[in-house]
Amino acid sequence: NRLIKGVVIYLNTPGGAVVPCQEIVDEIDRLQDEEKIVVASLGTVAASGGYYIASTADRIVANPGTITGSIGVIMQLPSVEELTKKIGIEMRVIKSKKYKDIASPFRKMEKDERELLQDVVNDVYDQFVDEVVKSRGIERDSVMKIADGRIFSGKKAKELGLVDTLGSLEDAIMIAGELAGIKGKPTVIELKERKIPQIFRLFSSIEKRKTVKLEYIFNP
């Protein structure tokens, strides 16, 4: 739409699975390729995957008390090995190769399996750091000093260069208008979240519980 000169993304999220975050970043890149301004407005929490998304915007606006940062990756794998022994359940596994059931909750994880999964986490973590370095223009060494999962207030994040401006969603809208060359107060078109039928939400919830996934997420 040629009439749209800029997009303000309001982020109020602790993050989530890696791939959806990366897909949103791809869409932001596409908007910027079309020469549209993208401004991120951070709400109460915009941490981990929330900050990953925000980092690619042309400007980041946060409230002083926003919780942000939490640069890192987590993979959480439950273990029910002892429980199944107590209740007399035995899992019989037939697999093609050694690592096919690497994330099985029914047996102890071996050292080489843990190392393999750690390599995957480290790779995705490096992708996160690379994006912050590229998008924010901060030296990698400086990012690495704070990319250990810690969180920051919006005020502290601004001091560290993770955020550009302290302000509200309304401030973010005005900044987007100024960057886009709009005179006066911009006209805002608000996109509403699509409602998903309850039955599809149920299936989605079940699938999430079945799936082992990497996450950019802040888990207080």
How would you characterize the overall build of this protein?
The protein is of the alpha/beta class and 220 residues long. It has a domain at 6-71 and 132-217: Alpha-Beta Complex (2-enoyl-CoA Hydratase, Chain A, domain 1). Helices cover 42% and strands 17% of the residues. It contains eight helices and eight strands. The protein has helices at residues 18-33, 49-54, 81-86, 111-136, 140-146, 154-160, 169-179, 198-210, and strands at residues 6-13, 15-17, 37-47, 59-62, 67-69, 151-153, 165-166, 215-217. The strands form two sheets. Strands 1, 3, 4, 5, 6 and 7 form a six-stranded mixed β-sheet that branches. Strands 2-8 form a two-stranded antiparallel sheet. Helix 2 (49-54) links the parallel strand 3 and strand 4 (59-62). The longest helix is centred in the middle third of the chain and has 26 residues, at 111-136. The two termini are 40 Å apart. The model is unreliable at 203-207 (pLDDT under 50).
Following the backbone from N to C, one meets helices and strands in this order, namely EEHEHEEHHHEHEHHE
Which percent range describes the beta-strand content? Answer: 15-25%
Q: Segments where pLDDT lies below 50 for 5+ residues? A: 203-207
Shape: elongated
